[in-house]
UniProtKB/TrEMBL annotation, chain B:
One Gene Ontology term, aspect cellular component: plasma membrane
One function term, GO molecular function aspect: phosphate transmembrane transporter activity
Record domain ABC transmembrane type-1: where: 62-280
Protein name per its UniProtKB record: Phosphate transport system permease protein PstA
Coarse class of the protein's main subcellular location: membrane
Length: 290, 296
């Protein structure tokens, strides 16, 4: 299992090439291939990002950089816009009719927030996991194989391999290998959440967005997910929303604190939790409000 | 104390209503089957009707009913599910959507005799087809589409939003999300709609009298060419269904055994609807399991 995780991410050979539609993106891909990510390279970044739901200004002018192979935690009180911000990174807010976004979202330096960018290709590169596990109403195998098949993998052998690799990477393979063709809805909550992670990994994303992925799980499942994220950060860039301060402190490299749609402070996790520079941050991480 | 009494009384009332419904259903079915079953035989089911003498069969009508059902479902299900997909997934709230909904409501409240007269003008005269199974099937479609659209829309809406999000977030297109994630989950509801629709199509008479006619030409059951005028599979030939036949035998039939024939035909009609129902549910379960791996 560690094998598949420690080796450098292989270029997915089966990727359907939709990039040709956008020249700029194509160039970015070339750059990404020719220059392996240096330590501390920015994976995704927002510049002056604003999100509105009708008249509600949910995200206010947020500029943030996320670094490759790191876990970044987004924290803040309920309703401060963490989910909204996270969902703007893979443009899931596009699916909400009232939502409107301004500003830039740079993936490998290329603005993917522009309306002419192929959102399908973007979402393939930026995977997502939700608070409540939402496996498809399909078999375990199909849950994982569905998206790769859509993106062009046809051969059964290749799909089998993707399914096994993804389930192993999500630390679920041993528990389900004998019941791959049973319904995913029969799994426990913790298993379902790992299946959702496997499903996201199956399309070989570069970035994983996780919105409170462990908050509906028991402590044992939570520990498994955290351990898993630690493994996954070797290959992926992870951005996680959490309400659990201990969790943020345990697993993240950097932490961003949001309040009322604004980014208040962004620094090393250690700094945020030991000597934050803003009063609001200190109050929040010490549990004085929120 | 009073709340408790009201509670008890209402519980009793609801039980009574439920019992009444069951009694009604059992009574009706029992009456139809008790009168009709003794009449049933292989000859009755396969032989053609007589116009003057006793000994009519319902062979062609049974065939017409099933074939007409097939034809009308062929139009109703794809168009109905398509409308359901549009209303549930694509329609934005606004004037256009409101107008479409209002049109569906009106269509669903049209009396079937009016649909029949409309069919007479359009499918019989305007097209120049005369009385045809095709005209009948299209009239039935008009009359069943609203129900099919509405049940599909409801079934599609009932699929949790998270399922769509999960698929879209994997970079899967909206259309494939609908066909591969939403529709399989909505299938049981859609099938229920199709069964309701089929039941109405099977039992409908008024809309068909004016569109598919009240008689069947001599059919050659060995002729499978759908273009040949004597082929039973020719959709552009006239043909009366069981329900129409029951009406005809009773209202203007000259045969001496009209009562027995219509009793037998009624029993066949009821049994056919039940069989169709069971079969559709069975098929749906097989498909559903194949697409979702779920045990229903
Ligand atoms: N679909 C929507 N339509 C309108 N307003 C919304 C929508 N989703 C979120 N909002 C509003 O945007 C703001 C930010 O919500 P968001 O869900 O991003 O907060 P959050 O930080 O994730 O909260 P929580 O910790 O409770 O999950 C809130 O005021 C919320 O009411
Ligand atoms: Mg949230």
């Amino acid at each position: 299992m560690t094998d598949s995780l420690t080796s450098a991410p292989p270029r997915p050979v089966w990727v359907v090439d939709r990039w040709s539609e956008t020249r700029a993106l194509e160039e970015a891909e070339d750059r990404a291939v020719s220059q392996p990510a240096a330590e501390g390279a920015v994976a995704i970044e927002t510049r002056s990002l604003n999100v509105y739901y009708g008249d509600v200004h949910a995200i206010k002018d947020v500029s943030l950089k996320f670094y490759r192979h790191e876990i970044t935690a987004l924290i803040g009180p309920s309703g401060c816009g963490k989910s909204t911000y996270l969902r703007s990174l893979n443009r899931m807010n596009d699916t909400i009719p009232t939502a409107r976004t301004t500003g830039q979202i740079l993936l490998d330096g290329v603005d993917v927030g522009r309306p002419d960018v192929d959102v399908w290709a973007l979402r393939k590169r930026v995977g997502m996991v939700w608070q409540r596990p939402n496996p498809f109403n399909k078999s375990i195998y199909e849950n994982v194989a569905f998206a790769p098949r859509f993106h062009g993998v046809r051969k059964k052998k290749d799909l089998d391999e993707i399914v096994e690799r993804s389930l192993r990477a999500a630390a679920l393979w041993d528990e389900v290998k004998d019941r791959l063709h049973e319904s995913a809805l029969g799994l426990s909550g913790g298993q379902q959440q790992r299946l959702v992670i496997a499903r996201a990994l199956a399309v070989e994303p570069e970035i994983l967005l996780l919105d409170e992925p462990a908050s509906s799980l028991d402590p044992v499942s939570t520990a498994k997910i955290e351990e898993l994220l630690f493994e996954l950060k070797k290959r992926y860039t992870i951005i996680i929303v959490t309400h659990n301060m201990q969790q943020a402190a345990r697993i993240s490299d950097r932490t961003a604190f949001f309040l009322n749609g604004e980014l208040i402070e962004y620094a090393d996790t250690k700094t945020i939790f030991t000597r934050p520079s803003r009063k609001e941050t200190e109050d929040y991480v010490s549990g004085r409000f929120g | 104390m009073t709340a408790k009494i009201v509670d008890r009384v209402m519980t009793a009332v609801f039980y009574l209503i439920a019992a009444l419904l069951v009694v009604l259903l059992v009574g009706l079915l029992g009456y139809i089957l008790a009168r009709g079953l003794p009449k049933l035989s292989w000859t009755f089911l396969t032989s053609p009707p007589q116009s003057l003498s006793a000994g009519s069969g319902i062979g062609p009508q049974l065939f017409n009913s099933i074939y007409m059902l097939f034809l009308t479902m062929l139009f109703t299900v794809p168009i109905g599910v398509g409308g359901g997909i549009y209303l549930a997934e694509y329609a934005r709230p606004g004037r256009l959507t409101d107008t479409i909904r209002a049109a569906i409501e009106v269509l669903s409240s049209l009396p079937s005799i009016v649909v029949g007269l409309f069919g007479l003008i359009v499918f019989v005269y305007y097209t120049g087809w005369g009385y045809t199974l095709m005209g009948g099937a299209l009239a039935l479609m008009l009359f069943n589409l609203p129900l099919m659209v509405r049940t599909s829309e409801e079934a599609i809406r009932a699929v949790p939003h998270e399922q769509r999000e999960a698929s879209l977030a994997l970079g899967v297109s909206r259309w494939r999300t609908i066909t591969d994630v939403v529709l399989p989950s909505a299938l049981p509801g859609i099938v229920t709609g199709a069964i309701l629709t089929a039941g109405r199509a099977f039992g409908e008479a008024a809309a068909l009298i004016f569109t598919a006619g009240m008689s069947t030409p001599r059919l050659d059951f060995h002729d499978w060419n759908p273009l040949s005028p004597t082929s039973p599979f020719n959709p552009f030939r006239p043909g009366e269904t069981l329900a129409v036949n029951i009406w005809k035998v009773n209202s203007e039939g000259l045969i001496p055994d009209a009562k027995e024939v219509s009793a037998g035909a009624s029993a066949v009609l009821v049994i056919a609807v039940l069989l169709f129902n069971l079969m559709a549910r069975f098929l749906a379960r097989v498909f559903y399991r194949r697409m979702t791996a779920a045990k229903l």
